[in-house]
């Protein structure tokens, strides 16, 4: 099943989207918003599935079907009660820490990294990313995320997978220039992680077929930067902690409420090399600029790719084995925010 | 104006509470939940104020008035889209860092500390705090928090105060035993900050009269631990960053959505000494156990007060100059969570 939220008010208007992303239909008789659907998921999910089947079969019983347009969408949850982002691809962690000349402790391979993100103001999948200054070191991070139903505190890993109800793609916008000072304060990323954006469509795990295995998505994550291929890393490879583990980690000391979003962290492959290689070097590339800069530094002594300038564009999408887009595309341009004061 | 949320469903049922906290009335014709009221604050606030005036005047025009009972309340926002907690009392920061043998950088006096907290599962003000293990080093932290309306990204400090719509008290439950390992990972407190709780009642700033000045609350915060006075620190003293500054800090790289909660951090006074002193030593005491343990360590070489055991109880309240409770009391007991797996 595929779900999205048309832009409307603070929480959007829930729609069911056809498997081929061509058509959609509103479902106000089931739930007005995706959060409302998740709040009563056991009750709403089978009803939404029925609509989804009818939509895919182009049933004449289904009234009000319209053309699906990703640019009319907010993020599936335009605001959420929780966004907690892991960093499950330790290759990414190794690279960004190398850039700061810090080592990866052994514990990072056994104890997940996770930060609490801001969840009150997500950006739409095709909306501009407005930020106050290029000096902040604007970067994208292409990731996968899951949405859970209610998860009890202390859920063990082997019972966590069943709480994963939806999957999405993420652009976890990062401000590399602000990260070192924020992390030095010891309280996490706060100002260095502005509003994130998610794919137009959230899908139930069964939509991935055999590509959803062991709570990982075994497909390449396509990242294009200014319309050039930039990353094709396989999200199923080098994922040290799967989503069941990340959900269990998040719920260690508290319950998670329905609609909690848990992210994978930047997808990153080692590609049988020390840290992978760029597409231009024959590799699968990267899912953020910071990694490319580090590879450039390792290979040539200096980074040559700059962080994003106003006008730069990032496109994040995942295709199934038939080349069909699963989630629709995150397609965003960074622009200057004019209201900023300092 | 004073507002609260009766326990009902995920978001509670909004009620207006009389100034003396004795009576209350539902307002479904204005807003069903506090979040709904905040989403349309410019429209709902004057209507809620009208009800509040009638309630205080015991107007016979007002139907459905009932006795207010804090134990029937959830936190004013039972779940929220954002909970960001500052650490504006740098004396607290100095003390807890001394306990870890780390210095306070000069920048901590000019650049606020702030972490993103989990906001999806707040605990009711009179509800038990259920946690998996005493080994986690369970502590309370008594704080003040503000609730904002929509705040634009980049709002300067001098325009931030007007976005503060409500005030509450907070018990920012902290797991001292988990904090060092979490902070060492560099991603913030995550597992070491379980669900927080807030006072039964949220109040508009005008309720504080002259005690609300320069975006600070100039009143003692009363903390009793196992029914003994533990802290009477004045929230208006030694607050290095006022709430306007904290809101501006939170909004530096992103907008804040209506219903955002911004915390002060643990209220802590220096009391013309190096770091203050306990009530039993004639001082105003502390707002968390960690500070007392540090003072004990400084004074005697070892901490003697242990962190909370199952059955221990904390009471947090603020009285106005007439001795009347402003927010009602947070009154909670720590109990063992039986569902925890590890």
Automatic annotation (TrEMBL), chains A, B:
Please report the stretch or stretches of sequence annotated as the Fumarylacetoacetase-like C-terminal domain.
Answer: 83-335
Q: Which residues cross the membrane?
A: none
- Gene Ontology molecular function: any one: catalytic activity
Which SUPFAM superfamilies does its entry note? FAH
InterPro entries recorded:
FAA_hydro_N, Fumarylacetoacetase-like_C, Fumarylacetoacetase_C_sf
Query: Where do the Fumarylacetoacetase N-terminal domain residues begin and end?
Result: 1-79
Entry protein name: 2-keto-4-pentenoate hydratase
Species whose genome carries this gene:
Bacterioplanes sanyensis
